[in-house]
Amino acid sequence: MDIVDMTRKDFESLPYRKRNDMIICDSIVILPTRRKHDSGFRCMDFVAVVRNEPKCLLSGMSDVLHLDGIGGNGFNWLKKYGKVPEVIPPSGWSIDCLPKSGLLRVFALNGHKIICGSALSSFEIYAVSEGEARSLMAQNLRAKLENKHYDW
Length: 152
Fold this sequence. Notes:
The protein is of the alpha+beta class. It has one domain (about 5-145). The chain is built from three helices and nine strands; from the N terminus they run αβββββαββββα. The protein has helices spanning about 10, 75-80, 130-145; strands at about 25, 25-35, 40-50, 55, 65, 95, 105-110, 115, 120-130.
């Protein structure tokens, strides 16, 4: 089903991702919940979307969404820079509002894909190039085939 035609109930009925599954998608839909976080703010859930098709729910317990991770340093910043970077290349993000459900959709610009972080109190997403996304998926698949847990 195309996310443009979905209702809030349609989004809520999606299955959750498997624990520690690496999710790479084109966009995410923000799904506010009725649950309150310890902070007093409402929790949000997020739906991974690929080519306008919903794939799964992602979190459900986060009260904050961090674009390009906490601090905005980007994916694998320590591996890339060796320290907190002084200059970070901008990725560019946009938000629009779905016509039927009224939910917000977040997407990265310039053909970037989104890597979704773990289901924690703060939910992190990262913009990566399509080439980097393919490489990460291949690396993740090899780790699964070798029956190893890969820590992203």
